[in-house]
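Please supply some protein, with fold tokens.
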Amino acid sequence: MKKKLVALLTAGCLLGSILGTSVSVSAAEYTRANPEAVVVGVMADPENMGPWSGMSLGRIAVLFTTYEYMITREDGQAYGVLAKNWTEVDKQTYDVELYDYIHDAAGNPLTASDIVFSFETAIATKNYGKLSPVESVTAVDDYNVQFKFNKELEMGEFENIMLECAIVTQAAYEASADQMATTPVGTTAYKVDSYVPGSEIVFTNTGDYWQTDESLVHGTSLHNADKIIFQIITDPSQHTNAISTHTVDISNGVPATDIDKFREGGEFAEGNIVSAVLDNPTYDLEYNMSDASVFQDDLNLRLAIAHAIDREGINLGVFNGEGMAVKDFGNSKYPDYNPEWDNEEYFDYDVDKAKEYLAQSNYDGSTLRLEYITDSNMDMIAQLIQAYLGQIGVTVELVPYDQMMGQQEQYNKDGFDILLKTTGSTDFIVNQWKLCWDARDYRDMTGGTANFVVDEKLDELMQACLNTETYGPESIEAFHDYLMEQCYGYGVVQGPVNIVHSAYITDVALDMRNQILPGGCTYAE
């Protein structure tokens, strides 16, 4: 059966969904870093601003100021940007209609042939794994494109593909002397005036954005700032200095240890605001369920550890209470999260119950290895878990790794007993679950799920959540309940993102990765 999806959302609705903190500046004193521009502190240099270069911290900071995509996503819902609407012909074929008046920042008109060029060139780079299902992209006419895929698409997969490829006109790309590495030209309202690698990127509003119907301009395409300067500041401590000295107006790079300096009563509070939002990823614990592990056949041991950990205590100890103790292997930011879970018992902290489960388990007093990728938050969470488990008589050895080694060692069944990880998605909670529990993605490495679970029922429930025909409240509830019952792993806490900014910025806009959208922010008159 064909389904037609039309993407419409007013800018006002969008802002309500992505804002951090709204503040009044009627009585606030503030200082602007530059009276002609908003200055944003970012943690890394994009190095290559080309439309299909590899993803990096610096790249995602400037991505939506530079380029547009076929769609955008807010609160898990997809809305068209360049795509006016799209039709599912079947699970392996989609037809997409474009707006017929799109042009880039250099004035070049954009048509279906540019969509074909963008996708085919992006796929050829092999930088974007999410594009692997694309079999062909065909221009039907000037403003209609057909996508064919090499498999049946699952829940959210089409939208993820549409959000994976930055779109440019072939004319602008071929006119660039460096494949847009330093001279990008997208379809946003902004063009790059200058780029000094390692220092700053300056964008100015062209005043000629193609989408003149304001009701169709979404958050990632808003252009409230006339000029944007991204200052590249790689040392976190220098973000504190840059905000406190008004060298930049806004930053998401201020270290957690310095955040209180900008709150009320802090030494840098005057004229500054801290806007805190909950981050997408969830910190979770996954048991090693291989045949080499003490957990494989010991549900009581799994439950003992789950009930021994005070998730709210971790939130307070690590995030000053600004995060959230979660009630699922995921968090409530997703549109398919069931709010009724908030009222359920979810491995609630209970030392006596934990000790009872431990007494019924086969635990012999041996040391359990807790593996994680080290950073300041992970280190603190791991240390608290070690202390909580010590209260019930379980000895824990901390096994930290850097990013590269941690990615490898998580699939070594002999290397750990418990894995502390972060997982997250920009769309649905089922796609966060998929990152651990879809055995189809891991079977060649682990024989089962990411943490070595071999369970046919779990597989069936996971695939029901991902299949567009069976996805819905019933399949979601069934998976949630079964994972709780088996306790193969569980969510612990969701951390915050702290945005520090001048009171000149009255509303902070963020994209789906919680990156600052300076064009979407609201500014004092």
